[in-house]
Specification:
Helix content is 43%, strand content 18%. The strands form four sheets. The chain has a five-stranded antiparallel beta sheet. It has a two-stranded antiparallel ribbon with strand order 6-7. By secondary structure, it is α+β, with helices and mostly antiparallel strands. A hairpin with a 2-residue loop joins strand 6 and strand 7. It is globular and about 60 Å long. Helix 4 runs antiparallel to helix 5, helix 5 packs parallel to helix 9 and helix 6 crosses helix 8. The chain folds into two domains: 94 residues, Phosphorylase Kinase, domain 1, CATH 3.30.200.20; 187 residues, Aminoglycoside phosphotransferase (APH), C-terminal lobe (Aminoglycoside 3'-phosphotransferase, Chain: A, domain 2).
Length: 296
């Protein structure tokens, strides 16, 4: 939310400094989507518009990490993302300014699949990233590791299970979770993922099209198993058969993905339990039961 004139004026000054062109905010309107930040589109008297997220000052590092993540995705030159303009704190708020993109309309989901496969072809020597970030508003650790199983066990599932314990998760869920952690290797017979550049939070609400060109936004970037991105696209829906067909044609998936899909989506379901509680505990329990049964 932009509560008074001080914040838009300060953001306008930050945009001016970042772009080298004076930007004076003339109007602003709320932008839909998201439940973590307040978002608005700010317009200037020169016709330029910017997409602005605001939150409490303690979320300044979250915005800094998002800006770095978008820059990392942009450098891959595989798929379009909104360019980060500037971020900081002013008038008692943290803010992130992004390129405004006229999202809407339709595009070819097959092209999105091909572009995502190209993004995943960008690799680095180790899993993780050079900094932590967030998944939703939950801290996401990215300490670099050459061992994917250790990374996923300790910095993904183990971290969420520790939080779930603090948030009053059922005892059986926690016990089954520990059992899963002890047997992660059973889900990777003959499969050794490479550290691919991931969007990290790839559900249907974080993708769209601009003039038919696919766009990704709101990332939780790190380098990990590409299957983790693909798995999340199946968690809440919103991606078509053409998307999956084009991705697999560009870069086929290992047959074990069909089981590991739930292993990767368990991370997000546990995170939803930790953020929102409610029925996500039951969903996580069902996923754990199915995964443990699949390993025999």
């Amino acid at each position: 939310m932009i509560p008074d004139e001080a914040l838009p004026r300060a953001i306008g000054q930050a945009i001016s400094a970042a772009t080298g062109r004076t930007f004076i905010v003339r109007s602003g309107r709320p932008a839909g989507g998201g439940c973590i930040n307040e978002s608005r589109i700010l317009a200037g008297d020169d016709g330029r518009r910017f997409f602005v997220k605001t939150n409490t000052p303690r979320q300044a590092d979250m915005f800094a990490a998002e800006a770095e993540g978008l820059a990392e995705l942009a450098r891959a030159a595989a798929i379009r993302v909104p360019a980060p303009i500037c971020h900081g704190t002013a008038a008692g708020q943290a803010f992130l300014v992004l390129e405004w993109l006229p999202l809407g309309g339709s595009g070819d989901p097959a092209e999105l699949g091909r572009r995502l496969a190209a993004l995943h072809r960008v690799t680095q020597p180790r899993f993780g990233w050079h900094r932590g970030n967030t998944i939703g508003s939950t801290p996401q650790n990215n300490l670099p590791s050459s061992d994917w199983l250790a990374f996923y066990r300790d910095q993904r599932l183990g971290f969420q299970l520790d939080m779930a314990r603090q948030n009053g998760a059922p005892r059986h869920l926690l016990e089954q979770g520990e059992r899963l952690l002890d047997n992660l290797g059973d889900f990777f017979p003959g499969y050794r993922p490479c550290p691919s550049l991931l969007h990290g939070d790839l559900w249907g609400g974080n993708q769209g099209f601009v003039n038919g060109d696919p766009v990704l936004y709101d990332p939780a970037v790190y380098y990990g198993d590409r299957e983790a991105d693909l798995a999340m696209t199946e968690l809440f829906g919103g991606f078509s058969g053409r998307f999956y067909g084009a991705y697999r044609e560009t870069w086929p998936l290992d047959p074990g993905y069909a089981v590991r899909r739930d292993l990767y989506n368990l991370y997000h379901v546990l995170n939803h339990f930790n953020l929102f509680g409610g029925g996500y505990a039951g969903q996580a329990q069902a996923m754990l039961d199915g995964l443990l049964a699949a390993r025999g």
